[in-house]
Design a protein that fits this description.
Helix content is 24%, strand content 24%. With 271 residues, the chain is α/β, with parallel strands linked by helices. The strands form four sheets. Strands 3, 4, 5, 7, 8, 10, 12, 14, 15, 16 and 17 form an eleven-stranded mixed sheet that branches. Strands 1-2 form a two-stranded antiparallel ribbon. Strands 6-9 form a two-stranded antiparallel sheet.
């Protein structure tokens, strides 16, 4: 679907625009305040790192699932401790610094997730402008549909950012590309080894059994990542238009290339 075209099946106009100089991800994702959780596949950690390191205030970065170690950053102090001791460990850090915190893991290079009540307490007592949370795992795949008990959203979550990768389009639905293949089959009607299309990505973004799962009462702004060239942009715009067509709770989809930290926003597709 091209910018400004009306979808004949719904007569709903969808527009796509290039971001302005002020179109920072923090604003496009309503992520300047509250507890912002990233779910899905294809760039959650990159997205959260970008939000945390570009926010002008004091923020926290944490996880409710396994997460690889956060690369050092001069604005951030790190606290890794058992869940019950984390509030004290965070409180003891320099209040001028933003904070990364998690629980230890016996898996090399990874941390474990923080308990819901602990996360809420640290956010409240720490006076953070925002807390950014990795609330889902996808084993480095491009797309995902959640299983029972996923995503791991804390009750205090205010904004959910579902993410998936445009690189899945044109690929066969296999475990090399997708996490929870059988769940994606249920959401999209695809069968394993069939080619993923832009429409399938839009269905996944819009489905209550896909990217919208457990988001009731929360702001939702999806991201399609890895939009690295004109072809991927055209495909991502089509996927975004499908998501807007199918889900009235979505009012915009951000197309991004998070590997370009200086210019991560490609376009915004909205009603």
């Amino acid at each position: 679907m091209q910018p400004g075209r009306v979808d004949a099946s719904t007569e709903r106009e969808v527009t796509a625009s290039r971001p302005s100089a002020g179109g920072a991800l923090l604003d496009l994702l309503d992520a300047r305040s509250g507890v912002v959780c990233a779910v899905g596949a294809g760039g959650k950690k990159s997205l959260l790192h970008h939000l945390a390191t570009t926010h002008p205030g004091r923020v926290a970065l944490t996880t409710t699932v396994f997460m690889t170690h956060f690369a050092g950053h001069p604005r951030f102090a790190v606290a890794v401790d058992e869940d019950e001791r984390l509030p004290g460990a965070v409180a003891a850090l320099d209040p001028a610094l933003s904070v990364v915190y998690a629980c230890p893991s016996d898996k090399p290079g990874r941390w474990s997730g923080v308990g819901e009540s602990t996360l809420e307490r640290i956010h409240r007592e720490g006076g953070f402008a925002a807390t950014y949370v990795k609330a889902d795992g996808a084993r480095m795949r491009f797309v995902k549909a959640p299983a029972d008990g996923e995503p791991a959203l804390p009750a205090c979550c205010t904004t959910v950012v579902p993410i998936l990768s445009a690189l899945a389009i044109g690929e066969p639905l296999t475990v090399a590309v997708a996490h929870r293949v059988e769940r994606i089959e249920r959401v999209t009607g695809l069968r394993e080894n069939e080619r993923i299309t832009a429409r399938h990505l839009g269905q996944l973004l819009a489905s209550a059994d896909g990217s919208m799962k457990a988001t009731e009462g929360r702001r939702v702004v999806p991201v399609i990542n890895m939009v690295d060239d004109d072809l991927r942009e055209a495909q991502a715009r089509e996927a975004a238009a499908v998501a807007l067509e199918l889900c009235s709770r979505i009012d915009r989809v951000v197309l991004a290339r998070l590997a370009r930290t200086d210019a991560p926003v490609v376009a915004v597709v909205q009603r």
